[in-house]
Input
Amino acid sequence: SQQGEEDPQALSIQEGENATMNCSYKTSINNLQWYRQNSGRGLVHLILIRSNEREKHSGRLRVTLDTSKKSSSLLITASRAADTASYFCATDSNSGYALNFGKGTSLLVTP
Amino acid sequence: GAVVSQHPSWVICKSGTSVKIECRSLDFQATTMFWYRQFPKQSLMLMATSNEGSKATYEQGVEKDKFLINHASLTLSTLTVTSAHPEDSSFYICSASGAGGVHEQFFGPGTRLTVL
Output
């Protein structure tokens, strides 16, 4: 069942700006992951943050996790036109490894 | 490493026919494979989880007689959409785990199914 909810649903920014997307979930999790999907394509794994971690970095990506608020954020710094895609958060729980995906944020980065 | 392929990339078929979609892990043994469905501008919905050599576990609301899943080897899982109808038109994505631990899933590129 769908668990994650991202906001905003859509985001339009200019190159060079930072993009922040948020994700909220409802039940306890083991891990939270962020994925990227270009239109009509498969998913690309961006970053995984474990439930006992609060922040993680990977290149221009910064992910935070607040388990008390059941929320996570993905920050893309110095965005590029090539970052245009949909971004999904996904959680897996202690009871299984299947991923529950959020509804996604559609990011448009204009040159 | 950890590459997952799907075949075909897209398929168009007539209503009432069956379509088979293959999901392969190319460079690792996938103990578990997952099948997702994604409608336009929507998120991925888990359809079923399959472990090699055992029956798939279907999510609530997914008809197991309509969406047949076979995971006969550690590198191949197939999804067969039987008697397809236009409402089955969707983007089907598989993922596989086993390379980096069960929590790390590697996704295939997806298969676009259009039923006329």
